[in-house]
Amino acid sequence: MSKNNIKMSIWNKLRNSCGWRSGAKQMSIDAMIPIFAVPAITIVAAQTVYFTVITFITTPVIIYHLDHNFLRFLPRSKFFFMWTITSVVMMLLVFETCVVPLLEILPEENLVFVAGVIGGFFCGHKTKIKADCLAQDGAVLAVAQELELEKGINGTEGDEFCVTCRKKAPPRAYHCRLCQTCVLGREYHCKWLNCCIGANNLKWYLGCLFCSTLAFIYGSNLTMTSVCHPFILIGTLLLPDDCSDVYHQLDLALCFVSAVYSLIVGLIVFSYLIYHLWLIYLGTTANERRRLTSADSHSTNYRLLTSIAQLVC
After folding, report:
1. Distance CA 133, CA 183 (A)
2. N or C of the chain: less Cβ packing under 10 Å?
3. What is the pTM of this model?
């Protein structure tokens, strides 16, 4: 038995051993890890500034190795999805229970933040619903039927055949090995929402990115300017100035660590939002652009190898 098969066998045994056996619902170990890991990591990071730096450096490395060695062998693992849910819930609880009682946040500021969180949850939920296999199959089937009708009228070929699904699929529909279906206008499979992003749910995904960016970055600014010494940038816009005192109290340190984490996530989400708006402007998708880049790379490598062979010969 190979090393990868052994890892997968051990991990599947651990997954199947978890859950409420007497009930209808089961929760795998990969979905349970973030529920305990995210709060524990936050508490450890809140101890000292050195722990904060070490935690923010080592956590992505640990997650990468966990994904590379175990999670990638699991079909539709909910690890990253549960990490997303746990992180958002934890940051919301820290904000409402630790930051708001400091009486530095105006009611309307809190309302904007909560609206961003609720909007992100709602758009994320709609993204997953629209990405359901039945919904994706329905969207692909509808486009395929339209193409069949156009082919009958104009006498032109327009559909393609997916060798994996063994079905006819319209152009720009690509197969996702995780969702086990063809996705129209496929961008990529988003691990953090545990679903595919395509033409059927792209607008909801963009809405989720926008609301999440607002909630993460705005909430981070409100938190930092509440627990740190702020300064006025422009008008009523405040930015944190001195945060050296936050580690004297655990609750303030938790707020600060949560704010830093929120800011990092918000900037990453914002970059994804800008990236997708740029792809829409270009009239392409992330999957098509990746395929084009890969094809160009192979073509360049082929020309290079051909040139070397000619020189050698």
Report:
1. 9
2. C
3. 0.80
